[in-house]
Amino acid sequence: MNSVDEAISTRRSIRRFLPTPVPAETVEAILDVAARAPSGTNMQPWRGYALAGAARDALVTAVQAAFDARDPGHAQEVQYYPDPFFEPYLSRRRAVGWELYGLLGIARGEAERMQAQHRRNFQFFDAPVGLIFTIDRRLATGSWLDYGMFLGNVMVAARGHGLDTCAQAAWTQFHRAIRAVLGLAEEEIVVCGMALGYADSEAPENTLVTSRVPARSFTRFDGF
């Protein structure tokens, strides 16, 4: 396996990190490499906030308070998931959810334990570095597609440094709290959060390796 394939194939969503610090220089190097992602007419629509120490803790405190308040006024600015879910996507979503809860010993109906696990999103699963990514709301769909390639690069580049990540759409629901802490401009929309650090190899949730359907199940090959 070449190093690129290895970085891609070993990328996983890690949900418990060690407290080991990650130097700012390493984070910057990862983002510099990731920014080589293609974008239409080289617009480079990404914007990021890298948080550690007190800055990270301030955001965690504010967003967890918003989560605990159960304020129905919190809503995503951009819909991430379909409503309602449909097949085959519904089954895939349920499978990974129950697989994760099973590793954590959370049974069906244990709503409070599920809620507590979901809350861990908002402490970046203990990662020492939290990343918040935003995009200018005036940009069009193509820039969101370009952004996905950039985010993929961030996660793969992190593997090249021996680090792990978890991309987190959950943060988008609390964009108002994030906006207040980070001082986001009005035109900025929160795209996602991302945890960055060293995986805790002893954590059962980090043994989760999700399945992927093979290329021939989603690609038609003609003329080969």
Structure description:
The chain has 224 residues and is α+β, with helices and mostly antiparallel strands. The protein is built from eight helices and four strands. It has helices spanning 3-9, 24-34, 53-69, 89-103, 111-119, 141-160, 175-182, 215-218, and strands spanning 47-51, 129-136, 164-168, 188-197. Strands 1-2-4-3 form a four-stranded antiparallel beta sheet, with helices on both faces. α2 (24-34) crosses α6 (141-160). The two termini are 24 Å apart. The relative contact order is 0.24. The model has no long low-confidence stretch (mean pLDDT 96).
List keywords for this structure.
single chain, 224 residues, alpha+beta, 4-stranded antiparallel beta sheet, 8 helices, 4 strands, 12% strand, globular
Structural class: alpha+beta
Give the neighbour order of strands across the main sheet: 1-2-4-3
Shape: globular
Give, in order, the helices and strands: HHEHHHEHEHEH
Rg over CA atoms, rounded to whole Å, is 18 Å
Largest sheet: 4 strands, antiparallel
Helical content stands at 40-55%
> What is the number of beta strands?
4
Mean pLDDT reading:
96
Our estimate of the beta-strand percent is 5-15%
Catalogue the unreliable spans: none
Number of helices: 8
End-to-end distance, in Å? 24 Å
